[in-house]
């Protein structure tokens, strides 16, 4: 199907030879090429999304709501992909309308499916729950305006209310069947958007923390941030932003939070756009008997033009407090996308005067703009940036600024989405659109290519394995330790698939020791042959890769 932009037929014409390429490339190849085009020419993103919306609008006219209610598992999965495309291309409410039908049909299938299909169906329902969370994030994005956020229109409210009622219907359908309600996260986030209480049955799922639970173990290694002593590994919750990393039920997520905290990993990093991370973390923290031992780091991210006002900034802080169920946020990290608009200074000054913000941090600020903030008089405690063996740009300029202003770096991407690990040693170059590859790995594979390529990366992993064997740890521990050994680094943020996989024991072995000169020398020999200096020149200072 050719999609004409603005109805103009000449924009739909494709050269015959080019059309032959499109017709014959495998789907994975097309994905690689499209992603490459969007990365190298971000100005075409709007056109890509517009064409996607037009295609989906034409495709949607061929599917009636009655057809959605009769889908089998395969049809449900296919329609789920359409809904995801809608959410990703700015059609949040259209996507919600489709999901409303899918959640009911999914429960009907679960009730009728044979035992041999249970695992596939359960996995599908869990992914739908993740889609509901992402849908509410997309709705929140649609409500963003230059002055902050607007209210739902009556029509929009009706769409979200219909979804909420369908979820409640699913609960009733499953009552006394022995099948767990699969859409707990979606129910909570939908209730949050509507400003209503979640059903009592959902609250019960969040009350599973034993009252006699012991105080968390002390962190093996700490740093000081103002008047707080904090662990040097934070648990990052960005993987809760999308079902692309998997999706777990609420009960498992609550258990996962408990495991992290009890093992001394009491600091968590999240953001206003990480799906339901703030909501579920906030509910866990409220019920946890030693909540004062926990540390909440979230973000206020401004990705689009806005008119900064005290009221808009205070409203965002209020939303963070509401979702987190905290009166005071331990660390609020501020991201500002558009450097040509200097209102970020005003926003930070409004944050500084808000008593609900205990500490202000920055997120993805380069050195130049960090210096501007410091010069404005706003006290900054942290800056969150990408920092790893593959991306050492913070060592070029940011390090000196942090040392001079007593600002600690909180680093992410330190394990390159999991690539810096034993499992990738002696492995061939990955197919970035394999179903087992995450969005983070697609991103960091590009960083590896810029840094020096897969062959040099394998040499790095081999050296890290040698050092790891010497210390009795794993490759990921060495990569994390390398970053932690820089004095201006406060903590490394390691992504946590809360409720799905558990790595607290592995992470703990990173702490309490340092690399020696011989270790650093072996690693440096590989880094010297990489493009690390060129990356600083081509990509710019840390944080600029997002602009």
TrEMBL record:
Keyword Calcium on entry: no
UniProt domain NADP-dependent oxidoreductase: residue ranges: 233-527
Keyword Oxidoreductase among record annotations: yes
One Gene Ontology term of the molecular function aspect: oxidoreductase activity
Transmembrane segments: none
InterPro entries linked: NAD(P)_OxRdtase_dom_sf (IPR036812), NADP_OxRdtase_dom (IPR023210)
Family annotation (CDD domains): AKR_unchar
Keywords per UniProt: Oxidoreductase
Protein name: Related to protein priB
Organism (species): Fusarium proliferatum (strain ET1)
């Amino acid at each position: 199907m050719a999609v004409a932009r603005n109805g103009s037929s000449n924009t739909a014409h494709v050269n015959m030879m080019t059309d032959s390429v499109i017709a014959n490339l495998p789907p994975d190849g097309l994905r690689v090429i499209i992603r490459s085009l969007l990365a190298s020419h971000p100005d075409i993103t709007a056109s890509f999304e517009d064409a996607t919306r037009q295609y989906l609008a034409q495709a949607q006219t061929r599917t009636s709501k009655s057809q959605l209610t009769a889908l089998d598992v395969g049809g449900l999965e296919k329609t789920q992909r359409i809904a995801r495309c809608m959410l990703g291309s700015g059609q949040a409410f259209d996507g919600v309308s489709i999901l409303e039908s899918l959640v009911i049909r999914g429960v009907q299938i679960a009730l009728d499916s044979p035992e041999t299909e249970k695992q596939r169906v359960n996995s599908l329902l869990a992914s739908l729950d993740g889609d509901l969370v992402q849908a509410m994030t997309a709705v929140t994005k649609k409500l963003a305006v230059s002055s902050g956020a607007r209210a739902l229109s009556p029509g929009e409210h009706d769409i979200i209310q219909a979804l909420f009622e369908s979820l409640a219907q699913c609960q009733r359908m499953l009552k006394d069947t022995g099948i767990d309600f699969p859409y707990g996260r979606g129910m909570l986030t939908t209730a949050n958007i509507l400003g209503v209480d979640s059903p009592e049955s959902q609250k019960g799922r969040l009350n599973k923390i034993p009252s006699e639970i012991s105080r968390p173990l002390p962190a093996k290694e700490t740093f000081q941030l103002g008047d707080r002593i904090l662990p040097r590994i934070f648990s990052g919750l960005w993987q809760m932003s999308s079902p692309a990393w998997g999706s777990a039920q609420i009960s498992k997520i609550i258990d996962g939070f408990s495991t992290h905290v009890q093992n001394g990993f009491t600091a968590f990093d999240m953001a206003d756009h990480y799906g339901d991370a703030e909501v579920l973390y906030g509910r866990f923290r409220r019920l946890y008997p030693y909540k004062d031992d926990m540390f909440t780091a979230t973000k206020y991210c401004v990705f689009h033009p806005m008119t900064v006002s005290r009221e808009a900034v205070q409203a965002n802080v209020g939303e963070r407090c509401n979702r987190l169920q905290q009166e005071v946020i331990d660390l609020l990290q501020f991201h500002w996308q558009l450097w040509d608009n200097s209102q970020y200074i005003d926003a930070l000054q409004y944050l500084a005067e808000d008593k609900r913000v205990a500490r202000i941090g920055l997120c993805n600020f380069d050195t130049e703009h960090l210096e501007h903030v410091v010069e404005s008089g706003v006290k900054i405690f942290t800056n969150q940036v990408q920092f790893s063996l593959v991306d050492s740009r913070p060592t070029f300029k940011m390090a000196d600024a942090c040392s001079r202003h007593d600002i600690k770096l909180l680093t992410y991407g330190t394990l390159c989405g999991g690539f810096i690990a034993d499992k990738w040693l002696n492995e061939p170059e990955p197919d970035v659109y394999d179903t087992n590859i995450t969005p983070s790995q697609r991103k960091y594979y590009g960083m590896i290519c810029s840094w020096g390529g897969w062959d040099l990366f394998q040499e790095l992993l081999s050296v890290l394995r040698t050092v790891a064997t010497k210390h009795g740890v794993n490759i990921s521990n060495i990569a994390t330790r390398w970053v932690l050994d820089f004095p201006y680094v406060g903590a490394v943020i390691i992504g946590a698939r809360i409720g799905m996989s558990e790595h607290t024991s592995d992470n703990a072995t990173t702490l309490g020791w340092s690399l020696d000169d011989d270790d650093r020398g072996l690693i440096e020999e590989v880094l010297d042959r990489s493009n690390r200096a060129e990356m600083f020149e081509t990509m710019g200072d840390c944080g600029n890769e997002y602009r």
